[in-house]
Structure formats: C-alpha cells, structure tokens
C-alpha cells in the first residue's frame, strides 16, 4: 500500500497500540495531548529511555505494538523502565486504547516472562463471584461450591496478574486486595488457612481513581498502593499519525483472514479516517476496518464513511455526558478564578477538591488556558 509498512501482530485479535519507524508523513495538525501523572515520571526517565533506544529500532522488543507517535514512544519508554522491577504498575486510559497490550508488554520484558500472565476483568465478574475469582474458595464455602477452586492470585504465583477495570472492585473487597498486595497472603473463601503468593500486579482502569477516592468510592490506601508507577495510554485522537499504520495493519490482517487481496486505500478515505475523532479508540477503528474489508469486493478498500459521519452527528446531538458536564463546570470555575488553581480563592477550593486532583482532571478532560500550553503534570 501507499501508506507505509505495518507490523503484523502475533495475536491478530488484540487491540493494537501500534508502533513502527515508518510513520505517516503528511502534515497533520497535532491536537493537544492529554497528560497525566505519568508525564511527571517520564520527565525523570526520558533521558534513560532515549539512551536505551539509540542504535535500535523504535519498536525493538515490542513486535505486537505498532505506531510512531511521540506519545506512544513515551509510554514504551516507561514500560522499559518499570518492567525489570517487581513494582506495581497502574495503566490509565480510555476504553479501547490497548491497555492490556501494555500490561502484557510489561510482563514480557520482566524477569517473570517465563511464568504465567493471568488476567481478570473485574467489571465482567458478578460481585458475588469476584472474591472467589480472585482468592479462590473451599468446597462448601457457599451454595454451589461443589469443589475447591484456585483463585487468580494462586494461578499467577511467581508470575504477573493483570486486573483490568480495577475501579469496579467493590469497597468490601478492596481491603482484602490491599492485604495481599502488601503482605502477599490471603485466605480462600471459606478457609482459615493462610496462602502465600509472590505476584507482580499490573492494574488498569478507564476511571479517575483519584476522584473516586475523594468521593469515598475507592480506598485511598489501596489507591496509593496501586499508583506506584502510573502509565497513561493516550487516546487515538492524540495519535493521529498512527492511524494510517493501524489502517494498513488491520486491512492486511482481515484481508488474509477472509481470503481477499486488498492493496489500496484511497487518499480521500485515509484523510477521512485521520480526521475522525474515534471515541471508541483503536477498538472502534479495528471494527470499522473489519466491516470495510467485508464490504470490499476488489483490490480497493471500500469504507462506509457515511456511517462515521452519522455517528459523529449523533454524538454531537446526543445528551451531555457526565464527563462533558464535569469539563464545562471545571472550565467555568477556572475562568471565574482567572485560571488561579491553588490558594484560598483558587479553583480547587471552589470545586472542593485538591489541587493535584484538579491538575489531573484538567489533563484528563484536556482543559487548558486559551493561548497557553496544556497544564503540566
């Protein structure tokens, strides 16, 4: 194709974060990149990360991750730094950005790479079964427990446990999770025998845990225990130059799966794809390209661009989301205080939150003062 070479994924069903040296070279106006706490961490390790990259391809060691944007490179630099340690990592980002791929990359670059990588989506398990899934249970511990069950922590012993959507863990379980993270021990449900494990935890969330802590929806001690090394995965709208690479990769992948030979993506189609906001991020782009390959009958990719425009119009006409309301309220408060954040008359006091929480909210919601640079971490 005319849009550069993509790097094939070892697992074609994974949502790709995506990295390659040959990027889309057209002049795309870069949008303001949302930063988070990991930006501050990155500033202290950037020089070490850049030095590690010298003499290597930018995707060395990340065969399944494709992309050329600076935002993604910063994420991979952080992965290189934290992976050799046993420290807990907290991956933050919107749904569909590829947080699981980053978690798997941390495991594969660690000393535990030859051990198990166990994953659990905390939001997908009913509340009554989540404790059993995490810690296991003994026979007869509850109705239906006809046999002893080993939990995910025991399965991941000496390996890595990836807990996705960790913000959905109920408060009553958070204390038990904190204990196993701090002391490495727990009891199965219905048992008095203490189990000991050596597990490296990587957690992910698309929620603002700091805000949840302020609202008493998440334990502060667990949050600080998880937030040892935060990594913010950028949304696709902040990685516009990666879209052509992703498009080519998905076209090639789905063409091979469906026995088609699609070699060309029209320039006007690529421009439309680059200009779309992709609220569902890479997962949405992947599904759209799969649908396009299905509809294509020749060598040229046929894309139902009208459906993208309809979705964009529906989104603009839809009801205001809680995030939009939060952004509007925060911006108005900042304007009323003339963008003074701290102090007795600052915006943080008026909003009833800490200054650090307001900084995080401004970064997450991409709130910046007119004619100024984005808020620093």
Q: Terminal Cα separation, in Å?
A: 39 Å
What integer is the average pLDDT? 81
Q: Using only CA atoms, what is the Rg?
A: 22 Å
Helix content: 40-55%
Largest sheet: 5 strands, parallel
CATH architecture classification of the largest domain: Orthogonal Bundle
Structural domains: how many: 3
**Number of contiguous helices:** 15
Percent strand? 5-15%
Q: Outline the low-pLDDT stretches.
A: 2-58
- Order of strands in the sheet with most strands: 2-3-6-1-7
Which series of helices and strands comes N to C?
HHEHEHHEHEEEHHEHHHHHHH
Q: Can I get a quick summary?
A:
The protein has 377 residues and is α/β, with parallel strands linked by helices. The chain has helices at 37-53, 70-82, 99-108, 127-135, 152-155, 171-183, 209-214, 220-226, 243-258, 267-275, 281-295, 305-317, 322-336, 347-351, 355-364; strands at residues 89-92, 117-121, 160-164, 185-187, 194-196, 200-205, 229-232.
């Amino acid at each position: 194709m005319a849009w550069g070479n993509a790097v094939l994924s070892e697992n074609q069903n994974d949502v790709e974060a995506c990295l390659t040296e040959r990027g889309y070279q057209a002049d795309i106006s870069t949008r303001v990149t949302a930063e988070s706490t990991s930006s501050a961490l990155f500033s202290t390790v950037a020089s070490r990360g850049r030095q590690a990259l010298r003499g290597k391809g930018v995707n060395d060691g990340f065969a399944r991750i494709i992309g050329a944007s600076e935002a993604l490179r910063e994420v991979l630099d952080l992965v290189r730094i934290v992976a050799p340690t046993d420290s807990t990592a907290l991956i933050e980002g919107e749904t569909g950005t590829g947080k699981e791929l980053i978690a798997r990359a941390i495991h594969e670059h660690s000393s535990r790479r030859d051990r198990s990588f166990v994953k659990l989506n905390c939001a997908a398990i009913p509340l009554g079964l989540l404790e059993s899934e995490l810690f296991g249970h003994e026979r007869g511990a509850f109705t239906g427990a006809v046999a002893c069950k080993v939990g995910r922590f025991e399965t991941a012993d000496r390996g890595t446990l990836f807990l996705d959507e960790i913000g959905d863990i109920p408060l009553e379980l958070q204390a038990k999770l904190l204990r196993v993270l701090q002391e490495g021990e727990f009891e199965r449900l219905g048992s008095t025998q203490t189990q000991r494990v050596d597990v490296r935890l990587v957690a992910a969330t698309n929620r603002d845990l700091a805000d949840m802590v302020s609202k008493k929806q998440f334990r502060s001690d667990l949050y600080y225990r998880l937030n040892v090394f935060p990594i913010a995965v950028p949304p696709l709208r902040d990685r516009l130059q990666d879209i052509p690479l992703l498009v080519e990769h998905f076209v090639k992948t789905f063409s091979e799966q469906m026995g088609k030979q699609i070699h060309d993506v029209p320039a006007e189609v690529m421009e439309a794809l680059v200009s779309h906001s992709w609220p569902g991020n890479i997962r949405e782009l992947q599904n759209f390209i799969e649908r396009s390959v299905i509809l294509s009958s020749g060598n040229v990719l046929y894309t139902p661009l009208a459906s993208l425009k309809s979705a964009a119009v529906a989104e603009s006409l839809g009801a205001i989301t809680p995030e939009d309301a939060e952004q509007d309220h925060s911006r108005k408060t900042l304007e009323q205080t003339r963008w003074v954040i701290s102090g007795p008359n600052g915006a943080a006091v008026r909003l009833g939150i800490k200054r650090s929480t307001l900084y995080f909210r401004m970064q997450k919601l991409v709130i910046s003062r007119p004619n100024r640079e984005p808020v620093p971490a």
